[in-house]
């Protein structure tokens, strides 16, 4: 008997998206302020879906011919993804208000992309995993190009689509290689076939199957914008509407990293030498993320390179391959996502000038220099961003420090001391451009007054993320214990 309750969060979120899009098609032209209905419906759907995800936490079951898994970790991850989505929807109110014609499509795509990420998280078979990944990816391509009045948005959508299709093709080719040499795409079956710490048994693993796994990993490295597969991230982050970029850097990246953790933990258990791939990509990501951001003048491009560096820390912990390292990965992603919501939320509230030719023109409004003297014109927003930048740089006792601390501790406990030291060095280098932003806000003379959208919910969310990073130390042990208890592998 099929237990449909396991997929009710995904069904609810997907059906809510369809309801919003179809309602807009039939009623949008009749009601001028229909976008309010879309926004409220999206928030209600997220609330119901998150409740259903939390309700599934006690259950550990396989469904749909062992192709779908639900346990405490997947349910918690999905609940967190929906909560992050809710914050993005709240931040998007101004964008929706200014772009009423695409409000329903925008909200629907956000929810469908999140549904795809949730399917990836619970997948126990490469076919279901590919279905979830493509459901998310196709929505992300449209979100990148959704600002039709901006040439850069169209360019970003095209670049993302072309390179995303390349990565999806590599993933599908890798899955076909795995199936061709093993006869199955099920994670548990593959784990029984190939998971071994015995060197002799390892030699018997077909080379074609190993090549397939490597192709899958490369495709996933592209999806999380890890170097050297990062080339799309800076252009897409800069060209897309800021609220779309917020979703890319938060919900989309969170679900993809959790899905990668699931694949790595369930399928490639303890393969000798597999950690070298993660270590190499981790070091390249740290190098590209640290040095690439130093020369950036645009805030969105800077944060894009920053995200590449963050993925270097995530992959370093995965290379350690232990339960503690996976706990550190999940912990890091939660902190990183909260910081990104605040940072990109700050950018989404900056008012941009409109020209007669191109609306929402991405110009000097999002340059680092535009923040000069912000402490005098808007001290609260300057304080919020300063806290987020200090936390991202890993300054104690803020949340970002502890997220890096647990990653480095997990790496050193597995004998990766040299790599941990290298990560610390690049973290110090990356602190330069975070502190430069604070310096510009607090010590440079204001050139022009930076104006923000009059959005109470947006400003409140940014303030909450800043305060969260400050008081996080008081809840540190509880959160680590919670994550440790929920991870079952």
Strand order of the largest sheet: 1-2
Distance between the termini: 26 Å
In terms of DSSP E residues, the strand content is: under 5%
- What is the general shape? globular
* Structural class category: mainly alpha
- List the secondary-structure elements in sequence, H or E: HHEEHHHHHHHHHHHHHHHHHHH
- The whole-angstrom Rg is 22 Å
Poorly predicted residue ranges: 354-364
Largest sheet features? 2 strands, antiparallel
**Total count of helical runs of at least 4 residues:** 21
Q: How many β-strand stretches? A: 2
Roughly how much helix do the residues carry, as a percent range? over 70%
Q: Please state the average pLDDT score.
A: 87
| Tally of domains | 1
What does this structure look like?
A two-stranded antiparallel sheet has the order 1-2. It has 489 residues and is mostly helical. Strand 1 and strand 2 (68-70) form a beta hairpin. Helix content is 73%, strand content 1%.
